[in-house]
Write a structure and sequence with these properties.
single chain; mainly alpha; 9 helices
Length: 166
């Protein structure tokens, strides 16, 4: 099958280039999701969606809660929160019981936009992304979960250092 990369040397490299191929795939999906959000009149980036969805589901949260729930680094979550703050979609307030803690919560504009995206863009994205895997042999999402669990058990670096694949 001739795709976006007709002379795809990374495909020839197989598992050696797995990380690079996943990054390339993520970049393609990110570009397309950005275009869909822009077409929907949204100023947010695709990586902001999980933060918005998490706040919509669980309510106000500390950055450490978002970090734990999303599995993203604290600096990464902080950058996303700052971008959403600049867009007026979230506010950051000091926690009532502990002034050292900051709570992130949706603004009324953030709530409005999340409700619109939940009713429109998000289901469309989920269906479109799911359709990408429909005809693939095996369930890629299960395969990714398996790979992530295996990496949780023992990192790629550890596996490389041990010089055995299992």
């Amino acid at each position: 099958m001739q795709g976006a990369y007709p002379d795809d040397f990374m495909a020839e490299l197989g598992a050696l280039a797995l990380g690079s191929r996943l990054r390339r795939l993520a970049d393609r999906l990110y570009r397309d999701a950005s275009a869909a959000l822009e077409a929907d009149g949204r100023a947010i980036a695709p990586n902001h969606v999980p933060v918005l969805a998490c706040l919509a589901r669980f309510g106000e949260q500390r950055v450490t809660d978002l970090t734990r729930r999303l599995g993203v680094s604290q600096p990464g979550v902080t950058r996303m929160v700052m971008a959403l703050l600049a867009l007026g979609l979230v506010v950051v307030e000091k926690a009532a019981g502990d002034q050292r803690q900051s709570l992130v919560k949706l603004t009324s504009e953030g709530e409005r936009q999340v409700a619109e995206m939940q009713a429109g863009n998000w289901p469309k994205v989920a269906v479109a992304a799911g359709a990408l895997f429909k005809d693939a042999s095996g369930d890629l999402m299960q395969q990714l979960a398996h790979v992530e669990a295996a990496l949780d058990e023992r990192s790629l670096a550890a596996r490389i250092a041990e010089d055995r694949p299992a």
